[in-house]
Amino acid sequence: MTDKKKVEWKIVQGYYLLGGGQEELCYEFKVSKGHPDFELIKVDSVCWTFYQAEDILTPIPAIIRVNRVFSEQNAVRLKLQKEAKRGYPILPIIKLIEEFDMELLGYMYAAHSRFQRELNSLSGSGTSENDWSKVALPEGKFKVYCDVHRMYKSGKNISAIARDKGISRQTVRRYLKMNVHEFLEYVAGSSIKVHQHEILEYLYEDHTIPTNRLYKIMKEKYKEELKISKRQFERYIKKLREEYKIYK
Asked: Which intervals hold domain Resolvase HTH (predicted)?
């Protein structure tokens, strides 16, 4: 006998829209049949929900852009079963934003970019080697760290993860051994961003300073603490000059 019971839930996949841009990780959310926006939510809708990072759920209000909607009963049932097994709930959709201002979002992105530069500048002054809470986290590296843990939990082996992310197996093992706190300490101790404020001062003082000379100054001052190759340093300086418009 065919089960004609109507779907009581929809599962929505979406990306968080934050001040720094759309996040790369896609998350799932749910909306009940009794919700006033149940029939209205579709691909590219923008909705209110709460923020999450991996398996960390927060009460912080956040917005998402809908990427996919699952309403077929078997698909929804499987996802709800997975929810029950993992031991924490799929976050709910709170409200559909019917007239979302994309121009305002663009303004937020620009404002965040300016704020990030200010944050980097201020955090570079008096930041201790282990004070990772004051160091701007490299988003790309943190995403790789999260992806490594997510892929390992899903059953991928170390070699497959290394190939997929373009990193060594040793790096994969290192990331898997670290909790978030340890990872942040590791980034703070090894990242060139710890010295960004000082490097910017050199560039502002002399726009024409050769990159080779600046690299030599920094290496002589910080020796083994500065764990970056000459080629990586050159790319970093090029990026800084473009970002802060410090041209020779």
From this structure: 148-177
